[in-house]
Design a protein that fits this description.
The complex is a heterodimer of chains A (275) and B (218). Chain A is mainly alpha-helical and 275 residues long. Chain A is 81% helix and 0% strand. Chain A has twelve helices and no strands. Chain A is globular and about 55 Å long. The two termini of chain A are 25 Å apart. By secondary structure, chain B is an alpha/beta fold. Chain B has a six-stranded mixed β-sheet with strand order 5-6-7-3-8-9, sandwiched between helices. A three-stranded antiparallel β-sheet of chain B has the order 2-1-4, covered by helices on one side. Chain B contains seven helices and nine strands. The interface between A and B is medium-sized, with 24 and 28 residues.
């Protein structure tokens, strides 16, 4: 456990000296600032305003940006270390594969979350200062969904990193995974449904397996219980689970998926040659 | 101390180690020589628990793969080329000491012996020259108090003066310290070693033991 902490600390320190981290932090902090500047908190569309409106838009941005950032940087870090023999050197010191793998995952988890949650908290502080209404319950649920999303894609990133030996291959797989999940949101699913007259239950099942779809529906369901802005698949999903049930599912399923992929990644990492 | 019986390693279809049998006793200084692809580095990586392998490999009865912590606690390793570690030198020393459960003092002392001064220790590892990086990794390997030192082409980046200091450091190590090194050139480290193992095609071609005071007079 002591070594787990040392490895996590090393990962955090390494990330803090990397350019990608500052770009990553800038993107999320910049997104919040940009949303404030564009006056989105004043928007009356769909009937809700204030910081909730900003958080919803921010979360929609996170759904697209966070997964690809997490996937690419995780693959770059681990597979890059393998290619450059950094992994070889650190694994010739007395540290178990378990501490090394989970320590790096833990360190990255913190590094990935701090800028995203930090920007969200900053927006709430600003909202308090400027007397905007803050719904703390929704804010807390958004934070939990972000944590769940980060864990899910870190797990997938670690699995990809354990499977491949070359960065290019890892980037390719990471990009394809992201693209596949983004494409299989409502918009494509309804096209498939119309084109092939697919069974709605099957369609719903596919949609539920996509963590991005789950996050999307959960975030909207927080503010749009009438479901007027959701797509048909989302409507079907929400009808099946109910609002609260679906939000719980949306937080727990990606956590489970992230854990499962991370465990698979660890088993592969432990069994294969380091180089 | 180190026992290999029928040790083999295959990469895809390429046989890197073809059933090696070898015994290395405590305190022996062994150099593996051979051309590129002869199997020297593969043998060392098996010993470091970095590769899966066929056959038997034991360090005082412990399997480097299954009992990696027990084995690696005893090993100080100097790689062939310095990896691009993005860390301050002081942080790397601290990390190496912490993970080994040892103090940083002996590593810093070994670094000073190799002419790495205070200013060098405050830099980022990436900002050091190739030779300085190699010296630091040697200092970490020796300073961790390991009783097995494994070095893959350790002098490849060192200038002649530094090589001399390195050889002195090597000779000043405890008598019971086992030293295993690789080299392309038979004349490089062989002077300091008591045993030369020549490898090619993943096999041991010749295993020569030099009795007497070789190296002790250097």
């Amino acid at each position: 456990m002591r070594n787990f902490g040392l490895i996590a600390k090393m990962e955090i320190r390494d990330s803090l000296t990397s350019r990608w981290f500052y770009l990553y932090a800038l993107v999320f902090a910049g997104a919040v600032v940009a949303l404030f500047l564009t006056g989105i908190t004043e928007s009356q569309v769909m009937g809700f305003v204030g910081i909730s409106r900003l958080l919803l838009t921010y979360f929609q941005l996170c759904i697209v940006i966070l997964p690809i950032f997490v996937l690419i940087t995780t693959v770059r870090s681990l597979v890059g270390n393998r290619e450059s023999n950094v992994l070889e050197y650190f694994l010739t010191m007395p540290v178990s594969f378990r501490d090394f793998f989970w320590g790096r995952l833990g360190g990255r988890f913190i590094v990935v979350l701090v800028p995203v949650l930090g920007a969200m908290m900053l927006s709430v502080v600003w909202a308090k200062i400027t007397d905007l209404n803050v719904d703390l319950k929704s804010f807390t649920i958004y934070c939990l969904l972000v944590i769940s999303m980060a864990w899910c894609f870190l797990g997938i990133g670690m699995l990809i990193s354990s499977l491949v030996s070359r960065q290019e291959t890892g980037f390719g797989i990471a990009f394809l995974v992201w693209l596949f999940l983004v494409l299989f949101l409502d918009i494509v699913l309804i096209g498939v449904f119309l084109r092939y007259q697919t069974n709605p239950e099957l369609l719903t099942g596919i949609a539920l397996l996509n963590p991005l779809q789950d996050f999307r529906v959960a975030s909207m369901a927080l503010f749009d219980p009438e479901l007027t802005m959701l797509g048909p698949t989302s409507w079907f999903i929400l009808n099946l689970f109910g609002r609260t049930g679906f939000i719980i599912f949306s937080a727990l399923y990606p956590l489970a998926a992230g854990s499962l992929t991370a465990i698979c990644g660890f088993i592969i990492f432990r069994r294969r040659d380091v180089l | 101390m180190i026992t290999a019986k029928g040790l083999s390693k295959v990469f895809r279809k390429q046989q890197a180690l073809a059933g090696i049998d070898l015994e290395i006793s405590q305190g022996e200084r062994v150099v593996f020589v051979g051309r590129n692809g002869s199997g020297k580095t593969t043998f060392i990586r098996c010993l470091l628990g970095l590769y899966n392998y066929g056959g038997i490999l034991r360090v005082d009865g412990a399997d480097p793969r299954r009992n990696r912590i027990d084995v690696l606690k005893r090993i100080g390793y100097v790689p062939q080329s310095s990896p691009p570690i993005n860390m301050k030198v002081t942080d790397l020393i601290q990390y190496s000491a912490d993970i080994s459960g040892k103090p940083t003092g002996p590593i810093i002392e070994a670094a000073k012996t190799l002419n790495l001064d205070g200013e060098d220790l405050t830099k980022n590892f990436l900002k050091l020259s190739g030779g300085m990086k190699q010296k630091l990794l040697i200092a970490i390997a020796f300073g961790r108090g390991s009783d097995i030192i494994i070095m893959d082409e350790p002098t490849s980046n060192l200038d002649p003066d530094s090589r001399k200091i390195f050889y002195d450091l090597l000779l000043s190590s405890r008598d019971d310290t086992t030293v295993i090194a690789t080299s392309h050139r038979a004349d490089e480290l062989t002077f300091f070693m008591k045993r030369v193992v020549e490898m090619d095609y993943g096999m041991i071609l010749r295993d020569t033991l030099f009795e007497g005071t070789r190296g002790d007079n250097a």
